[in-house]
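HOLO CASE FILE
Compound: zinc ion
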Amino acid sequence: MFGCTDDQIGREVLNTALYVYAQPYIDVGLGGQIAEDGEGQPYLRYHYGRVSTIFPESGECLFCQEVIKDVWIRHQYALREDPHMAATEARERYLVGGGEQAPGVGPFTSAVADYGVATLLTD
Ligand SMILES: [Zn+2]
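Model generated. Tokens follow.
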């Protein structure tokens, strides 16, 4: 299986499916952090790409690799129920964004996907 969703819920489904169907799973993603400068303007503080390979009989799942977390999945379910939930309300409910809301910049996305395909071809 090859996963490249930006959705924590989708990653959880694929993370479970690899054990149900006993198939290797390669998951790619981008992450990063948006910060604010002294004038409150957002900027991209850091950015990274990730390729995770999971074999059903060995290795760590996406939870163990801390690619997905229960709190991020609950956050996405809450946003599905109330897409207009304010950031402050989300914080009050102790729901934090998963970092996967970081901007998917096209060239970086393509580069990380290339590494994922290279991983598929060499495993
Ligand atoms: Zn695990």
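CASE NOTES: DSSP finds four helices and three strands in the chain. Residues 106-122 form the longest helix (17 residues).
CLOSED: yes
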